[in-house]
Design brief:
The protein has 103 residues and is mostly beta strands. It is built from 2 helices and 9 strands. The chain binds FE2/S2 (inorganic) cluster (FES).
Length: 103
């Protein structure tokens, strides 16, 4: 049988300014993965509408859990993402100014 297997992968997210890294499990948003790793990113609605979490994707690729994340075409072209609804398709590097460690 010649069938394509769809495997699950975890990816690594790096916060460029802080130098922190965390694992992003498949089907987990970047925000959820950061929290699970003890890193708090700015957030409010957590459903892709308020834009509180907006940050820059320095490298890598993401896909969204929702059809219409609250980003303009220009913001997307400039590399901005909403980590509360973004899931990694590759390892990613993010620029997040206000990330903090959860004690
Ligand atoms: S927390 Fe509201 S858009 Fe991400």
């Amino acid at each position: 049988m010649n069938q394509i297997q769809h495997e699950s992968f975890d990816y690594v997210a790096s916060l460029q300014q802080q130098g922190w890294r965390f694992i992003v499990p498949t089907n987990c948003s970047l925000l959820e993965a950061a929290l699970a790793a003890g890193i708090k990113l700015p957030s409010s609605c957590r459903n892709g509408s308020c834009r509180t979490c907006m940050c820059k994707l320095v490298s890598g690729q993401v896909k969204y859990k929702i059809t219409w994340p609250s980003l303009s075409r220009e913001e997307k072209e400039d590399g901005f993402i909403l980590p509360c609804v973004a899931m990694s398709l590759t390892d990613v590097v993010l620029e997040v100014t206000y990330a903090t460690r959860i004690e």
